[in-house]
Amino acid sequence: MTANVRHILLLLLVTLILNGCASMGQAMKASPSLANLGGIVTISDRWLEERYVNDESQFMRVNGYRIHYRDIGQGEPIILMHGIFSSLQTWDSWVRELSRTHRVIALDMPGYGMTGAPENPDNFDEDNIVNTVAKFVERLDLDGITLVGNSLGGFVASQYAAQYRDRVDRLALIDPFGYPQQTPFLLDLGTWFPIQFMGQWVQPPFFVTFALSTAYGDADRISDRDAYRYVHMSQREGAKPIYMETLKMVEARAENNDPLPFYRIKAPTLLMWGEDDEWVPISLAERWLADITRSALVTYPGVGHIPMEESPEATLEDFRRFLRSGLSPFSESVAGTRDKAGEEGS
């Protein structure tokens, strides 16, 4: 074992010891068995469907995926796209309120949640995800869309808005991923060959809950319900190799300096960003604001990478203002923040 490898493992061990007690507790409670706690076995689709599919759930076959989505309410359509390793339940607080006035469509993104892997996992990549979402929207025959995306979902939403400019009326990007950046330590570790190799078969849920704790500005705001969901989805049949492929895909994008097409977006775009995001730093907001002509920024002190989950009330209030009045309420938001955002959690 080289000195560099020993240093990495030692640093990881110290970090886990210092930060891992709550994460381990949630991982243990979320695991149906000891084998699940070890990250060795999978959870059956039937078990997952009993917990994560309901009477509002629908399925659509697209590009070899069985897309799981919920289409609720009437009015102008809003499509909600979650980030990596998540699922449509991340939007539950938003959907409940927005569906009173709008048609709200939340989907499990290709590769994740109850949608899961495609029939041919070798097809899973950036272009495949964007193309699948585009076909999904086409099948629903939607125009005048408001697109909302978090993290990798923000990247997909932006790609769609740049390619299908006339279909998108508004765009909201929540801690979006896409521009070159320094990746977080856990992602670097996940793309290290030994971890990549073992991760195809073994992914202990403790690492899932620990990673989730780093995605929040305040890990105490993570509900058991959300922590269990992340663990359960990570143990669905076919999830492990897709998760490892996601890490490689994200690292490749973070190191890619090729120009992005986001300057082509014509929809008014609201950027919403947790100031304590360790996964996609808020400094990158400047790149988005520079490339998207009609854009504004609102930030949330003390909040991390998943603001709609960590601070649902503040983020929903700002999004509803955006729906009502466009960017005008946020004209000073590039330099301003929401003082109360960090105080509101799930």
Automatic annotation (TrEMBL):
Superkingdom of the organism of origin: Bacteria
A GO term for molecular function: hydrolase activity
Classification via InterPro entries: AB_hydrolase_1, AB_hydrolase_fold
Pfam families attached to this UniProt entry: Abhydrolase_1
UniProt keyword list: Hydrolase
Residue ranges of every copy of the AB hydrolase-1 domain listed in the record: 77-312
Protein name: Alpha/beta hydrolase
The organism of origin for this protein: Tamilnaduibacter salinus
